[in-house]
Design goal:
single chain, Calcium-transporting ATPase, cytoplasmic transduction domain A, 7-stranded mixed β-sheet, 22 helices, 22 strands, elongated
Amino acid sequence: MKNNDNINNLFKSFRIPILVFIGIIVFLVLNFAGEKIISNILIIFIIFLGSYRLFQETAISILKKHFALDYIAILAIVISVVTNEYFVASIIALMIASGRTLEEYGVAQAKKSLTKLVDRIPNDIVLWEGGIANKKEKIGNIKIGQEIFIRKGEVIGLDGILISETALTDESSLTGEPYLMEKIKGDQIRSGTINIGDPIVIKVTKTQQNSTYNKIINLVKSAQEEKAPLVRLADKYSTIFTLITAIIAVFAYFNSHSMQYVLAVLVIATPCPLILATPIALLGGVSAAAKRRIIVKKLASIEILSRANTFIFDKTGTITLGKPKLTKYISYSSDYDQKEILGISEAIERNSLHPLAKAIVIFAKEKHGNVLMASNIKEVVGSGISGKIKGKTYTLAKEHSDEGMSIALSEGKNKLAVFKFEDEIKQESKTIIDKLKKLGISIHIFTGDKIAAAQKVADVLGGEVTVQAECTPKDKQEGIKELRKQGKITVMVGDGINDAPALALSDVGIVFSNEEQTAASEASDIVFLGNDFSLVLDSINISKRTIHIALQSIGWGIGLSIGGMIFASIGMIPPVFGAFFQETIDVAVIINALRASRY
């Protein structure tokens, strides 16, 4: 069913070029059969169908005093119709419509992103009334002070204060940090986070309009509106190409006093290859990127990425793996050796779902800690976990640290050991960052983590890395704004909802993602499937190669067109053959542009 919808959407996007192509075939058949009147009426309609938007947009661009290559195509179509060269006009209309549709299709696909970001939040909320989960209510109708019920695994739709005794939430989508948050009664619960533990009740403190998550959506929306519109690559060459065309066309007229010569020049000058070169090369680049697990959502991002000079990275899940690893063990008791400490900790944490507990279990097994059995295990959210081993009660609980997460093992009031955790840096991060620096790209890290932890990562990556720590989503967005004000071409690389506003505002937004769609991936221009940091360098190389091929195709198109126009101006190429000559140029340009798909 979904595939059928995709096919229907694809046909809807390309229906005009398809109908124009079919119309041209029917025209040729009718013309061959001698039905001149019917075929001429049909082809005039087909020319109008394929070019009416071109005329409309050209009129608007004239009013805005914006010059574009399309003026040549307009003039060629008008002269073709006036001189009864309908077939020539229809070919021009087909190529213009096809090139524009290829560009617009990518833009239309990108506009779906904000809708998917909004859809993450549930539309209906379960009210908690009289001590029971009562009726459902639309999220927009929920008022401050009402109590709502959130089941295990649900996205929390509204901000509030926890009424239940404890809660376990996943805030990684907002903060970008990999740790589950343990909440106790009275703590703030933020919208957009996920309830990982048992069902909970919260008292609403903000309406949907003022919720944390809705503010992030609004930041994304405003960022998308702030982005400058893409100027087609070919338009950069429009003035000089049009000037050359005008000179040759004027020469053709004064040399022959025949509009046929002028038409032949204009037909060959029709900028189909220039307009087609960019989208076809970009689509080829998209294909090459997809083979590397790089999903390009917006075609324009390839061209911008090829010129980028400033990369901004989120830390957790981007430069790092996003998974806590036990990196340091400190013993405070001479009565217990390492194997005993690890055995006790592993026995108590064995069945816990907490990420730090899993890290302790893995570490204990790697160090061959004693295999023990614990009883009376009690896990209290916000307090830690305890258990009894050989008649003694041990507790594992969080310990405050500016360097990252720490857990202390205690027996009563006696601290036995402390486990310290770090988010491990991806193996290839430093190598890739070094290569980016050699390309003249400046590196920044924007993270919600503590300054000590962020600086430690920056130190591993080497010098010339600017760090901004303890960032909110708004802070990251403001940082991007400042860099863009300085004239930097920015690329934001992240993975959490907290990155979404910055991803949307940066010139190119890139996100690391798994198979599932995340809000961050919906706000991005490019998605990396998996956690391979080398994809950053691959994406740059693919973009540079793609744009090189596009520019090469444009250069060939201009060169061949000018050569053809010169021959047409002296009567060596009539309009109909000029159309076929133009098609030959189109084919050459397309074949060259398709090389971008091979990387």
